[in-house]
Each structure stands twice: as C-alpha cells, then as structure tokens.
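In the design runs reported in the main text, the only information available to the sequence generator was the tokenized backbone. The following block is the verbatim input for one such run; it is reproduced so that readers can re-run the procedure and compare outputs position by position.
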C-alpha cells in the first residue's frame, strides 16, 4: 500500500525513492516564495534541496506564500504532508521519484495579506521570490511600462496596509524593514519573462512611488532584483500524476512530474546574501540576457509554433504535436529559418543545437504536457515569445512568413472551435474579446492585427501584415493542414 507522505513516514518510503538526508527540523528560513505552483517545486525548490543534501544552505529554507484565495487549497494539501513534495522525473525511457524537503512552512492566506507582510518583514528573510506567470507583473497594455491604472494597483496604492497583490505586500514589508532597520531583501522573479528582474523592480518601485516616493527611492537604492532564466517542462498535476506517485508507493496530494532537464541562469546580484545554487548545477552569469533570449525565442516561442495549430487540429499533447508530421515540419522550418538566426550563441550551445535539444525535449512521450496548457494566455505569450522574432526578422530583411502563419493560427484558434467542429473552451484572460475579434477577422484579417496592445505597429508592416492576411484566409478557406503545406513548399 502507498505510504502517506509526511516527515514521520520518510524512512518508510521504498528504497528506490530518494528522500531528504538532512534534518528538516534543524532548517531555518531564508526565502519567502510567492506562487507555490508545480514549476517552483520542480525547479527552484529542487536546487535548494540538492544543496541541503550536501549539508549546505541549511538557513535558506523556503516559506511558501500566495495572495489568491485558491492558494489556500494548495496550502492545506502541503501542510498536511509537512510541506514535502514528490518529484517524478519522466525520461523518454525511464522514470524516478525523489521527495524534496526544502520548504518548511506556508503562510496563511489572508485577504489583507497581513501574515505575508509580517513574515517578509522578519530579518531572517533575505530573498522574496515569485512565480506568478509572465502575465502577472502589471505591465501596461502596450507592453511599455507599469500599468498604474490597473484596479489591483489602484487599490494597493490607496490601501498600502491592506494590499491585494504580491507586490503591494512586498512594498508593505519593505516599509516595515526600513522603519525597523532590518535592511532590504532581494526580489527574485523566477518567471518566463525577459529581463524578469528588471520588470519586478519596475513593478515594486513604481507601486511604492504611488504610495511614498521616499520609500521608493530607498527600495531602488538598497534592494536588488537579479535577472534570471529558468527552464524545465513541468506539466499540471491531475489524476494521472497522482497515480504515478502511488505507483512509486507514495500517497502525495500534490506530486509534480517533470522532464529530465533543468536549467537556471542567474545574475549574481543579491543584496542580502544567497545560497550557492551553482553547487547544485545553476549558472551565475552576466550574460543572462543571451541565455533567456535563446530560451524564450526557441523554447517558449517554439511552444506557440506547435501548440496553436495543434489545438486547431485537436492534437492533445505537445509530444503528439511533434509526432504530427506537418506540425513537426512547421517547427523545424520556422525555428531554423525565422527564429534561430536572431539568437546569439551562449557558452556551450549554438542556436542550431538548441533547436535540436528543444525538439528532443518536446518529443518526450513520457511528459504529458497538454496542448491546451501550452497555448494558454496567448495574449501574454505571443507578444513576449513570438513577436520579438517577427520584429527582428523585419528589421534584418529576413523571412517572417512562418511566424505570420503562427499568428494566423492563433487567430483561428481564438475563434473558439477546432476544425472538427468541437469547442475550444476559454483559454485566455481576454478570451471573450479575442473570440469576438477572431470572428471579425474571418472576413477581414487585418482586424486581428488591430489588437494594438499585442501587435503594436506590426499591423503597419506590409510584409508581415500581408502574409498574415494570406495565411488566415487560407486557413479558413482550405484548412490548417493546407496552409502548413503551402508554407513548407515556399
């Protein structure tokens, strides 16, 4: 029978399961992490756990946190098993399980975030990290700066002691730390967002400035916000993943599956100290930008290249998309001709080799990563992951037709039906508006490019706009497969 996961049962787990070899009762907190989703537990928490397995970083344990009401469900699940998580590594040919113990607490979820503010203000907390998704940083709709008009931000500016957002809570905690002489902490974004540290700084400092300009100046001068690049494919947890944990003999209410690959590249800019994550395989580098451009353009952009037509054609998984001959051929041609030429080489990896690496990772059949999950929130992902390659291609006089086809496929997807007539249920925070615009674009493709917060001036770039209109008209008239075939033949 499967063993219920807890501190008391660690020694009863099967011998094949790796588990903490350190004394968890002796761990001391050093990090508050906001957003305890699967990615954090398979990535940042794992790196820290691996340091602890070496007898290091015993005073850097993680205190989990959340700012949304649904986070209370996750907190209850993890608290019931002493904040332990089973990680199941899924390789193409084999799998393994490991229990990670680097998290030692989870702050209660409160509407005014009072407990979170109090904990972040304590002197033992030296890093406040976040995984709140790339769309969670209150960037203005044009993508140019801070969205001071967002209702959440307006609320936090007017109610600094009862903030609604993670960033408002960070500002409130820093206000207390300044008043008490505790000193600053490092704000560490761990989201798939280019220049994520700079954007986190922008959000925190801008919100602070709306409340107290002197506090904003203190934060800007004393706190640090390192940029980083994070990478590991981590599917959502459902019945299949729960069953996989049970197959290893572990009854875990919140297990995490992940691929057999991780990467973490970090700018070494920590105002209050840091763990030696490099001893667990992370890379400290002053070239984070080059690493993140390679990853965001080729991996995250590549995810959109295959998931959007895959959703229209009802291919349910990412590995299934890579098995689909037309979608795989689309990936190869777009990546090599329209994305990789605008990506710089990094130590030990050329863009062309990275395209091959990502193809192998996407093709891993053990990772049941749904096409729907990867295609989610296109209104944030396309501007961040795909359109920068379009802009660089236009500026360099290079091909952009395949990327225009991807955008046309997204417009077709947002119409809300697949080619077999089945419904695509809402899959974007702005789904209703996108669906209305997609229906309009069926007869007038340029209506889609008039979504200025996504496309900016690309609607005025004839080479891209004309190609987009051509592909969208073909997709509606002849189907997605015919459009892909025409592109591959071009």
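Verbatim output:
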């Amino acid at each position: 029978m499967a063993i219920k996961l807890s501190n008391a049962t660690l020694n009863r787990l099967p011998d094949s399961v790796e588990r903490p070899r350190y004394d968890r009762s002796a761990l001391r907190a050093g990090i508050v992490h906001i957003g305890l989703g699967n990615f954090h537990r398979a990535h940042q928490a794992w790196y820290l756990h691996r340091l602890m397995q070496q007898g290091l970083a015993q005073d850097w344990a993680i205190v989990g946190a959340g700012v949304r009401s649904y986070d209370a469900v996750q907190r209850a699940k993890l608290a019931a098993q002493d904040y332990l998580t089973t990680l199941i590594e899924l390789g193409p040919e084999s799998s393994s399980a490991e229990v990670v113990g680097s998290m030692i607490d989870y702050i209660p979820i409160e509407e005014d975030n009072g407990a979170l503010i109090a904990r972040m203000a304590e002197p033992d907390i030296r890093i406040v990290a976040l995984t709140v998704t790339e769309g969670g940083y209150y960037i203005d709709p044009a993508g140019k700066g801070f969205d001071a008009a967002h209702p959440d931000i307006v609320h936090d500016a007017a109610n600094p002691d009862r903030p609604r957002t993670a960033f408002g809570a960070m500002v409130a905690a820093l206000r207390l730390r300044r008043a008490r002489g505790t000193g600053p902490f490092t704000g560490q974004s761990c989201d798939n967002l280019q220049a994520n540290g700079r954007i986190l700084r922008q959000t925190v400092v801008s919100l602070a400035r709306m409340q107290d300009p002197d506090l904003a100046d203190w934060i800007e001068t004393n706190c640090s916000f390192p940029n980083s690049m994070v990478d590991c494919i981590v599917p959502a947890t459902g019945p299949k993943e729960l069953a996989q944990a049970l197959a290893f003999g572990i009854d875990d209410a919140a297990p995490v599956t992940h691929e057999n690959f991780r990467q973490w590249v970090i700018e070494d800019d920590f105002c209050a100290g840091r763990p030696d994550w490099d001893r667990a395989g992370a890379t400290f580098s002053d070239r984070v930008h080059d690493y993140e451009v390679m990853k965001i353009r080729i991996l995250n952009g590549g995810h959109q290249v295959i998931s959007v037509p895959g959703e229209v054609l009802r291919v349910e998984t990412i590995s299934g998309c890579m098995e689909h001959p037309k979608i795989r051929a689309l990936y190869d041609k777009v990546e090599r001709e329209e994305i990789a030429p605008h990506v710089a080489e990094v130590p030990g990896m050329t863009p062309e080799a990275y395209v091959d690496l990502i193809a192998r990772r996407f093709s891993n059949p053990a990772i049941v990563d749904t096409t729907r999950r990867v295609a989610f929130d296109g209104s944030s992902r396309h501007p961040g992951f795909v359109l920068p390659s379009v802009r660089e291609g236009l500026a360099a006089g290079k091909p952009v037709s395949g990327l225009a086809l991807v955008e046309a496929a997204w417009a077709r997807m947002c119409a809300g039906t697949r080619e077999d007539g089945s419904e695509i249920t809402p899959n974007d925070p702005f789904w209703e508006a996108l669906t209305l615009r997609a229906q309009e674009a069926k007869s007038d493709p340029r209506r889609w490019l008039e979504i200025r917060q996504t496309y900016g001036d690309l609607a005025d770039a004839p080479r891209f706009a004309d190609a987009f209109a051509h592909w969208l008209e073909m997709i509606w008239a002849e189907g997605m497969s015919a459009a892909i075939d025409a592109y591959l033949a071009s």
